[in-house]
Amino acid sequence: MSLPGVKASNWPSSKYVREPECPPWMARDAFESAKGDPEKLLELCHQKVQGAQRTLDTTRKMTEALHQDPQYQYAHAVQAFEELRREHLQLNDSYNDLETINETVQEVVEVLRADKHQLLTELNEIKREISIQSIENTKLALKEKEGFAFQEGLEKKLNGQEEQLRQLDDELRDYSNQQVQIQNEMGSLEGAAHNLSHQTASLSELRNHLDGTRLQQEEAIRALEKEIEAKVAEVGAHDEQLWDFKRDMSARILALQRKAQSANDELARLHRLSEHEMNTLSQQNRALNDELKNRSDALYATKKEMNEYTSSAQREINIKKEEIQQCLSIVDLVERQNSGLEASIARMLEQNRVSENQIQEKDNINNKNLIEQANFIAMVHMELQTVREDLYMIKSRLCHHCRDRLLTGEQEEDEAEELARLQQPHPSLHAVAPVVRTDYTQPPVPQQLPTHMSSPGNDLERQRMEGELAKAHEALEALNRQLLEEREERARERREEEETRYQEEDDRLHRQQEEELRKRRDTEDDRRKQAGDELKTFTIRFMNGTRKKVDAFMTDTVQDLINRVCSKVGLRPSEMFYIAHSVNENSVLGMVDRFLDRSKTLYEEGINTKCNLVFKFKHYKRVIKWIDTNAQDRFFQQVHNNIVTEYYPSPEKLAVSLAGYELQTVFGDATGKKRHSYFDKVGLDAYLPVSVTPLGYEYWQERLFRNHKRRKGMSPTDARNKYIDTLRQFGSHWGMTYFDIRDKENRPFVAGIAEDGLHILSSDKRVLIQSLRFMHGPNQLAGWEKSSTGIFVKRRDSKFMTLYASSKLQSEEMYNLLSEYYLMLPREVQQALGIEIPHRDQLTQELLPPETFLPPLDSRRVPVEFESAAEYLKTIYLEQVFSPDDIDNRPEPVLKFINEIDEALDAGRALVSMDLSSAGMHDTDWAMIAELIIRAMDYDPTAEPSVVPTDRLRNWESNLQLEKLSIANNDLTSSSLPATRDILNRCTLLTDVDVSALPLDNRHEATLVEPLMKLRVQSLAMNDCLVGDKGVRALLDLFTNRTLHTLLLNRNRITANVMGDIAGCLDLPYCSIMNLGLGTNKIQLRGLETLIKVMERARKPSTLNFSDNPLQTRGGQRFGQLLEQQCGVTDLDISNTTGQMNITGDVALYITRQLLNNPEIVRINFSDNPIGQNLHQLRDPSGQVTRDLPLEFFTFLEREAICNLTTLQLNRCELTNDHGAALTSALVDNYKLKVLEVSGNRLGLSDGNLPQGWVDLLASTSTLEELDISKNSLQSKGLAVLFTALARNRSLRKVDISGNRLTDDSVSATGTRDEIVYMFSTNAGIREMIMAEMGFGDDVLERIAEGLAENRVMRKLIAPRNNISTRGILDCTKHFAINTTLEELELTCARVQQVEEEYMRSYKFIIDNTNLETILL
Known about the structure:
5-stranded mixed β-sheet; elongated; alpha/beta
């Protein structure tokens, strides 16, 4: 084409313009003839365009004729009507939902914020008026200045016109920029429309949130009203100031308005002059623009033709470059493969060398273990030899006849062993294994002694000998078990090491391959970008809530995008991963995932950068063994997200159990530090669904911690697998993917497709209407077909197909998912079912083989509201407590009652024990609980109404089987008696009942006797029930209950008058009471005499509490006579808390003389009796000791004594260091006593030191487990000696040294620091240490903490009411953090609690830095 006024010969030479080519629509002859004549070529083009125009006109006429055809119009109208009808239904549903939500939200918002908005509006209006006035004043001043400036500007008019021309050019550029901005705004509007669906969903969530926070809103309204009143007063003051300001400003405004009017007149005159000049300039500009436009059009056409020639040449060059690049890539790939093979060979050689070294190291370790085991066996052999020597000593003390019988029995056993040895095969034929007895649970039955030779002493020695033999057998069995466990542990460790090594090698190879793949992908991306392909950024959402930006080309396939995502997050590419496009269809489920076809490109799938893309698993199946642990973690997160978001509705019991596995996966084994970290950065919804019990974070922290501890020892992989297995076994919605469907009446339902088939549920997913399974069940699937309006399903027992209506998208997804799950069934199952699947081979190649997964579920739990009686009980109780009917008067929940139910549910056991003692219950609380317990026990799950027939008993557990009930020590009155009677009548399995502190008042005992007589009660406690003689007579019928063996009536009003009746009942042959509590009553000596006579004859009860009764000296002597008669008493409590018993030293000495030869008694309590007053050494005039009464008192503890006492309590008995010396002397060789309590005496020396006897005792004893030596006047010097002795002790498990002085100054003076550190760091036995009220400060606490840093056995440190500070706690935390076994720490101190801020800072610091479970400051 030639430009106007320019000849063809003036074209640029061929050096710059490529030779034109013949277009495909023109004949070659015509092109050759017109190639040199541009005008002729243009004419041919016009002819071609006119021909195309004529063809277009003809086509348009035919189209118009077709549109006028009635049949076509009718079909088009029908199609338009159907589309409008569907759109109308969808819009109507959406409009109704949105209208309801909007109305509700609008009403709530208007009610809450109307007053606030009114106040803010008034304030804003006032501020706006002020701002407007100031702005107007500023504008007037500016206009005045502009007027002066404009007068000066007239002189520079010509310069201004040139500036205007430049401004016109700038405006043209601004218009183009504005056009770009408009396009961007259109894009943002489209994004806003896309987010509208999300806003609709958020409105429903907002409604739920607003309903849940109504109370907070009401409080906010009240606070807002108060704030409004204050603001009204403030506004009134502002109004007065504003009126004054307004009057002042009015005068100024009038003056400024007059000046502005004169300026405006001058501006109008100047504007008329400039308008005339602008018109002249605009005419000149239009002429220039027309000329420029003509020239630009001609240049543009030439440039377009040149670009076409250039692009064709560039394409040819790119094609050649691609071929060259492919050849280079092949060469590079071969080189990398060669280098990889060489590296693999070198790596295998290195692995062989490492394996040889590891084998050598393991051999050394095994040899070392064998040596240690041999040493351990030698040690056990020495212990057995010691036991054997003890047995010989026992035999030496037996009579001649008993010794002969034992020797005869041993000879018979030796002969039997010799005979068995002779019957064994010859060692040359079979390998002889070492003979180790493994069944020591039943030790050999010893020979019975002759009747005439039997005695308590001989029986005792025989029993002790049998016990020593049983211990030896148990030691051998434990050794055998330990050896087997160690062998299994070593084998397991070797397997784990091998698996870890293989896994690490596999991961390394994968990382190497991934790095190579990434480099090739980067190279390919660079090449494609250079070729003109555009790289776009897509936002990928993951099921754990995170998002990632991933770059990809529109020509990439979906599989390429999946590979890019896997590379981005460190996953191995797998057929398990899919990318879905979340589409909002405004249905019941909201967003619907459209899974993208892996073989199609992003462009073909219609994906752009604004699409909501989700990276997830499509199929929910249990993988047998995961190759990639990261993929397993992703699958676990997706399933867990379905639980917490209630996509899978789950009962609270199941959700809590799953949360335990989730915590084990995230935190590992439970510790105190981790327990306090559950909710540091996340809320409760990170572990549990939002519909769980609303009882606060503290409740849930404790419950989750209990479940977390049950998963101890599980690795993260095991915990994830157990999570999935538990959900598969107990979850009714496991593995389902949900779709919206409707029946023929347009009612909404939900279709759940899982590995076992198709399940039809109600719209809330709570009711299972029908299950159509691939196998196992009456309604088996025989086939399925898709349509544009839903999916057709055929059953094997029916000839017809059922249509489940749904949208086109969901119908397609349902059809694909059913086909894929079918192809993932075991192959033999597919062959047996024989269902035809279109494109079967192609689908099979895209899926993992069926052998990768476990077979599908044989059966699935039916979703029901309650699966057990305990769950129903908790639900109805919480409904009563949190009922919205009477918010002001509703009771506080009894957390102990809820915890009892929770512990049973979480442990998976029946609720057999209900301990509500000291729960703070009132009459109304107990009445409600009793009523609901009875209601839950009578609950019939089959009586609940159901939409469809449901087998509610299939998984039902009647786990409410109360056997133990305690309501002791609550704020109950006699009004609670009817509820207690009702619960006793209904709970027929009760065996232990405790109603202590329930006021029976000597009148209401008969109310409880009747229901108690119907039960097989074994233990009954009625302490502090105000029971008198009349009440006891009403309870006498209980003595005839053959099962009752424990009756506790302590702290009542019983006198001696009724003891005859009690004794008479005890004398009955069918009375089984063996534990009788009558302590702290008003029973005098006469009543005791009556009771003892019966005990001497009937040998019952064996446990007697007769403490704090007014008996005086004669009563103590009578107890000694009871022990002398050996009437079967094993536990005797004769303490003197209230001062009525008053057993003195001489009476106590008489009692202990009877203990000397009594083998029956195992526990006795002398506490609070003045034993030490007249129990001292007797001396002659020369000072020689003639009689050592303290030593005689403790003779019953010597080794030669027959007494088998295990627990001795001598608290507050006025004992001195002389008594302590006698006690320790007797206990040095004692091997029976386990518990010793000597609190509140004066066992320390006058200088606060500890007598040497205690050091010898603690160093030698091997049986003492509990020691209470608190409040015994010990000072730092004596405590240092005690700490040194405790450091060498290995038997003690609990020690109490409270009340002894251990101040920082005294520790510094006596140098006790090292002893404290040494004891706490080296003792390997003490589990609980009590150090209350000892007066120590930060220095001693730091020494204790320093020792505990190396301690690995202590569980509790109780040290309240000392003199520590927050600074000391902070300094010691570094030592507590090292300890891994300490669970409970109590440092309660008033000094710490003085400043709330410092207290909270210390508490938080020690929580964040230690593993303690319980901390009290």
